[in-house]
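hiii, so i know i said id send this last week but things got crazy w the move. better late than never?? heres the sequnce for the chain we talked about at the cafe, plus the structure i predicted for it. fair warning i was half asleep when i ran it
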Amino acid sequence: MRKLGCWKTSMLAMILAVPLVAIGCGKTIGETIDDTTITTRVKTSMLNDPAVGGMKIDVDTTRGVVTLSGIVRSQAEHDQALALARMVDGVTDVKDALQIVPEGQ
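okay and structure toks below
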């Protein structure tokens, strides 16, 4: 019985702490979940597109603003990666930090 009470107290503490952590980071829980969903959708669309080397592109989302960084092989791959990110629901802006490095360099 005592273990159950301790468990309940621990869970209550965690439930109360999560919103404080999210607020401390400047994001609500909803914004964090939305940004994670957007990041996942952008990354998935890049991995599913044979013209984009999705494994070499990092995706970061903050309040709907997606930042793409990493290395692409051509201007066409660069443009396609930006276009894919812009097509995802919830994306408000796309920031470009991609570097074009032709294959073999």
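btw Strands lie at 57-62, 65-72, 93-100. thought thatd interest u
miss u guys!!
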